[in-house]
Amino acid sequence: MTGPKPIAELPVTLCRNLKVFFCDIDDTITAGGLLTAQSFGALWQLHDTGIEVVPVTGRPAGWCDHIARMWPVAAVIGENGAFTYSYDRDRRKMRRVSLIPEQERKEGREKLERVRERVLREVPASRIAADQQFRLTDLAIDFCEDVVPPLSREEIDRICAIIEEEGATYKISSIHINCWYGSFDKVSGVSRFLADRGRVLSSKAVQDSIAFIGDSPNDEPMFAAVRHSMAVANISTFLDRLSHLPAYITEKRSAEGFSEAVQIILKRRGG
């Protein structure tokens, strides 16, 4: 399998035609758990250039409400595609669109309690993510955000096996293992966002006007679905676990890699 191309090979035509830039958050636009001044500035640069930014994240509904209100973004797709929040600043109204109905969410949360119990019992070093109380749809198991030392690869694999045994879906981010019941992922969340605007993800016109940047296995569906997909350099940790690789990779890691990609886009857009 051919590896990602250097970000320096990003096509000029994409940079000039780019309308929506989808991005992961943790360890993509953040570094060391912080949103850096450099990456937040890059978000504003994209906004001011007329490129809509849409974070696509495993983070919870509570965080997404804040991000949709407070960041220069067009919308936020949260909990790995479970919903989209977008804030109308003129009307001061939040629009919340869920991919699954409330009854299905309720049933899923009940089944996730068994997953929680088994994981904590069978992998004693594991912890439930600190942001769990702000989640609507999924269960987030922390393996390195607030866990010291981080869980081993063997412990992570055991957690994933438990989730599979319980019939749930899971994705591994750079900090959490997110699991849920329901037929959604980051791609279905993005597809719904575009469909609400009368656009189809698979169409050539849309593919020529969007891009995505991420950093970990939970971004793999987006690497497969978006022609102009990118990853920051820290994706190298996970490349041997991916069947679908990003098309391009930055030289720098995390927030610096995100800013690197943005500066290339903006320079070529104006060239």
Characterise the protein shown here.
It is built from nine helices and 15 strands. Helix 2 (37-49) runs parallel beside helix 9. The model has no long low-confidence stretch (mean pLDDT 96). Strand 6 and strand 7 (83-88) form a beta hairpin. A six-stranded parallel beta sheet has the order 1-15-14-13-2-5. Strands 9-10-12-11 form a four-stranded antiparallel beta sheet. It has a three-stranded antiparallel beta sheet with strand order 6-7-8, sandwiched between helices. It is α/β, with parallel strands linked by helices. It folds into two domains: 5-99 and 184-269, 3-Layer(aba) Sandwich (Rossmann fold), CATH 3.40.50.1000; 102-180, Hypothetical Protein Ta0175, Chain: A, domain 2 (Alpha-Beta Complex).
Feature tags:
about 270 residues; alpha/beta; Rossmann fold; Hypothetical Protein Ta0175, Chain: A, domain 2; six-stranded parallel sheet; four-stranded antiparallel sheet; 15 strands
